[in-house]
Amino acid sequence: MYFRSVTFRRQIPLLVAILFSLLLGIIKVTSEIKEIRELQSRKAFLATAPNIIIIGWDGVQRDHLWECFQKELPECKKGLPNMEGLTSGEVFDITVTNGETETTPGWPQILSGYSAEVSGIFSNDDQPALPKGFSIFEKLEEYFGEDNIVTLYVSGKGAYINNERIDYLQESAGNNSNVGAKALELIEKYKDKKFFAFFLFKDSDSSGHKFKENSVEYSEKIFDEDQWLEKIITKLKETGVYEETLIYVTTDHGFDEGQDKHQNAPYGFLATNDPLVIRGGDRKDLAPTILERYGLSLGRQGNIPAVYGYPLSSIPPLSCIPEGEAFLDYPNSPKCCQDLRLIGLDKFKDGKCLLPTGGRGDGSGYCTKCGDGQCQKPENKCNCPVDCSG
Fold first, then answer.
1. Where does CATH 3.40.720.10 sit in the chain?
2. pLDDT tens per residue across span 93-111
3. Strand partners, 93
4. What CATH superfamily is the domain 49-293?
5. Distance CA 140, CA 197 (A)
């Protein structure tokens, strides 16, 4: 008996190790089964989710767009018929309240939903690529699995996101014709797959810089981009996927009124066939709108922070706008909290005040304690001189 007892005691560590190993195996298998079921559930959801295309019209001022849309300009006698057909006539206001009204901070913000403080991209002078894992493309690939969704990126300009997990990426594609032709080719190629795509047309911005905002040439490039919208819609219909595809046409910034620059041009637009979109919003709001459409969380995921924008399918769940944040002028939008004052989107640059232009009648601004004797961002010498004139 003594020998058996000693032998048994000597075997206890081995038995414990075996049991622990078995337990780890069970946990691993259970975890793998859970992951498989979650992925199956996500794939089932994806099967019913729409394809999504973001079409970028670079540097299109809101007021100029409306003048074309409503046939007020001689060169826009036909209006923008394809945008009108896409939206049934309703185009939403998008306003830039964070980061410069420039391309390098603009498209990364649209394609991620993050503020400049989080992405580190404030202006054209900054590193143009988003941090790894921040973009819609990467989040979709991670959530659904790389074999289950196709991500496409064609830009007439640069690549403003991390490109490691994008299935097809072409930057610096050139003029509208090059971008449009590649867009049609990719839609044809992936018509039998679920896809998320971004096609950036740059000629509107280039024309604004070359001929100025109020030029006929600027209008003509906007009309040309509307014609490419028609070709994309036609291709989607020919391939039988239009009814299951959501299109969002937007811009990264506007143009200073009558000028060849966009130093303070925060007024853009959004045209879409998404019936759930009910309001205008911020440049940061399109990404959470799309992530919500695909069933992804907007909160923090591991090392990836929560997005900063709000889905355009609902009014943000705020009782009021807190100090330092932006008020956006759309119906039923939350107002500044009590004791806060609404100041404008004016900027102080190179020793002078720059008023925002290109969005007539837009009352968006910032909610601050302007008048309390302290000059704090986003206050400056132009929108709060009483505190910032010293």
1. 49-293
2. 999 999 999 999 999 999 9
3. 269
4. Alkaline Phosphatase, subunit A (3.40.720.10)
5. 11
